[in-house]
Structures are given as C-alpha cells and as structure tokens.
Amino acid sequence: MIMWTAKARRGAVALALAAGLALGAAGCGGGGENKRPETQGSASSAGGGSEPSTQEGKSQAPLAELRGPDGLLLQVVSAQRDSGGFVTVNGNLKNDGAKSAVVPSQMSGDETEIIKHGQSLGGATLVDSKGGKRYYVLRDTDGRPLTTVGLTTLEAGQTLPVFMQFPAPPESTTEVTLQLPTFSSATVKISG
C-alpha cells in the first residue's frame, strides 16, 4: 500500500509538473508579436536563419545617407526620441561597392573603453548646432557602446541593420547632424 501511494504521488507530481510546463510554454509563445527592437546586430547574424518580422519586408525611404570608404553607405531610417531620455538611430549599413569592404576600425572611435569591446559604431556622435552640444554614443555599466557591434566585413551588395543610442537633446531640438568617423555627415530629423 505504501509503494502504491508513493507511485501515485510521483505520478500526480509529474502530471502537475508537465501541465505547468505546458502552460508556461504556451504563455511564452506570444504569437510572434515581439515589440522590442533588435538591440544588437552583427555581420555574422546578417546571413539569416530567422524569419523576417512584418516590418522587415517594408521598404522605407531613408531619412539620410552617409557615404563612407570603399562603397560603404549608412542609410538612416529612423531617429526616435524615447521617454527614457535617449534617441535611438536605426539604419542599414550597406556595401554599395563591387567587392567586399572591410568596415573601418575608426568607426569605433578612439576611446579605449569602447574599443576593447570590439568593432562598433561607437565613434558616432549627434551634433546639436542650435544648442551647441555634441552627444556621444551611450554605454552600459561595463563600458560597452549601445550600438551594433561585431562589424568586420560586408560582401558586395550586403546590407546589415544597425542601431546607435544617444542621450536625447532637449525637446526643442528636432534636427541634429549625425557624424561617423570616415563617413560624410548628414542632418537627421528626430521624431517622437
């Protein structure tokens, strides 16, 4: 009788555990509606493997284009002011050239703290000429830049989604100049 009770108890626990896991997995599914933006991209992840989101298939006219060396082109598709006090600049780094292009290491900037975390867009700045201020890429508590990292080489025709986060200029500032080492500068309109 004791053995039968122990087996029944183990079975009930296993059944409850299985039901809990099934409910947990169903609750995590969310129907594929991930509202958070991609926070980190790399050249290795650009090759795919994941299904495109509903926004990826839509073509947006860029707000600005910055031309770089060897056919590299940064197309800015949005500059969104967030309630947290920062501006997120999203875009596409594209190789418009006929051969592969090495992403210039100068794009990371020259700060030791940022460089030690690998090649990135850490050298980017937003310039508010009206307010007379320059805003540098934000960093996390470990000194990593809040931008796309792991940039190395882009093959001819390859496009890589990228982002950069900066402290937000005052609400009255709606246009800033985006600067990236080795690239031309461009005026970008901030939304939000």
Automatic annotation (TrEMBL):
Keywords: Signal. Residues 29-61 are annotated as: Disordered. Residues 1-24 form the signal peptide. The keyword Signal applies. The keyword Signal applies. It comes from the Bacteria. This is Secreted protein. It comes from Streptomyces thermoviolaceus subsp. thermoviolaceus.
